[in-house]
Amino acid sequence: MSLQVDLIKQLSDLHPKPEHIHFQYGTAGFRTLGSVLDSVMFRVGVLAGLRSKRLDGKTIGVMVTASHNPEPDNGVKLVDPRGEMLENSWEVHATTLANAPTSEAFIEAVDAFVKTMRIDLSKPAKVVYARDTRPSGPALVAALEDGIKAIGAEGRDAGVTSTPVLHYLVRAINTKGTKDAYGEDSEEGYLEKLSAAYKKLVAGKAASPPLLVDCANGVGAQVAYKFAEYIGDTLQLIPVNTATTTPGALNNGCGADFVKTSQKLPPSLASTLKPGQRACSLDGDADRLIYFYLDGRGQFHMLDGDKIAALVAAFIVELTKAAGIDDQIKVGIVQTAYANGGSTKYLSERLPVKCVPTGVKHLHHAAEKYDVGVYFEANGHGTVLFSPESLDKLAQHQPSTPAQSTALNHIINLTNVINQTVGDALSDMLLVEVVLAHKSYSGEEWDSLYVDLPNRLVKVVVADRNIFKTEDAERRLVSPPGLQVKIDELVRRYEGGRAFVRPSGTEDVVRVYAEATLRTQADELAYRVAGLVYDETGGDPARRPIEFL
Ligand code: 16G
Ligand code: MG
Question: 5-160 architecture in CATH?
Answer without folding.
Answer: 3-Layer(aba) Sandwich (3.40)
